[in-house]
Design brief:
Helix content is 25%, strand content 30%. By secondary structure, it is α+β, with helices and mostly antiparallel strands. The protein has a domain at 2-52. The radius of gyration is 16 Å and the shape is globular.
Length: 77
């Protein structure tokens, strides 16, 4: 994918000589033109470093589109 905006964490990881594959990001596809090799994407969120339990759990939930927000208590307005 071709990234249209680069998040701060990504730039910091590059400066610290970390591989971009050591952090998980959520990307939003903008468009993919018929004559283009790659889609244009925007990185919307960093969900954490690879190996971190919270980041790995969130990655699995997002990969399989599993809703994980808590339900509101009944009767609350």
């Amino acid at each position: 994918m071709a990234i249209t905006s680069i998040p701060e964490e990504f730039v910091k990881d590059i400066e610290e000589k970390k591989k971009p594959s050591q952090r998980y990001y959520i990307a939003k596809f903008e468009c993919w033109k018929a004559n283009s090799m790659r889609p244009l994407c925007t990185i919307t969120q960093s969900i954490g470093e690879a190996g971190n339990l919270e980041a790995e759990s969130l990655r699995i939930l997002k990969t399989f589109d599993i809703w994980s927000d808590e339900y509101e208590a009944e009767g609350s307005a």
